[in-house]
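User: Look at the shape:
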Amino acid sequence: MTRRPAVTLMEVLIAMFIMAIGMMALLALFPVGAVSMAQALKDDRCASAAAIAENVAIIQDIRHDATVSSSLLASQVVCVDPYGQLIGGLGALGGVIPRVTPAFITNDKNPTYAVDRWFSLPDGINFTDDAIPDTTSGFVDRDRRYTYAYMLRQIPTSAFVLAPSNLVQLYVVVYNGRPTSVLSLESSLGATGTAGSNSIVVNSGATTIRRGGWILDTSSAAAGFFYRVTNLTESGSTTTVELQSNLMANVTQVTIMDDVAEVFDKGTSWQP
């Protein structure tokens, strides 16, 4: 019987090297998985908030709310944002798009509580150390991490008749981590963009725009189109902002929508 030679040191080192590569590849999956899970959780929360917001809009008939309707008569686009208007005291978006609080909020006996009740994701509840919902403030305290606002656009009767109609396009704007007590007015920047293109050029102040973030066309009171940023290219005193979709109209000013996670188009869904 022949004697089998023992494993050499070189073979041991090669085996350890191969195993180390495999372990490194395996460990690299953990942070990738954590990031993917966080994004999936965020997407799920945003979708849930948008679904709840749409139901609230239908239940409260927000398209025909007294305050909203009167604002739509004066402006084709209106932002329904009680956190910004009622609690934060913020003015018009970009200085041109009215920001209002619906009548069913202002007529409530406790408008501040009504804003939390109707304009934040109800799943976000703060608990005590005993795993009991925190009610020290007199009601169930919510973390208000995910809040939302509406953007409503009056649809003309036809392409040739600009008279108001019963058709109101509704967008749900979901915020992630937006302050709910001390808010500051959104930043607006001069911009140049042509309808049909997928990019705009803004001044050097665009450093506050982030890839994956949202900007709002506030060129006029009839604008109010949302665009997601896909890339930024700086060139001297200007920055070219590439967008996920083509511009709906010529752009002369954009407003940076900080903390906006998603924007959902919920259509007209006319209600009599």
About this structure: Residues 9-59 form the longest helix (51 residues). The chain has one domain: 38-265. Residues 43 and 245 are 20 Å apart (CA to CA). The radius of gyration is 25 Å.
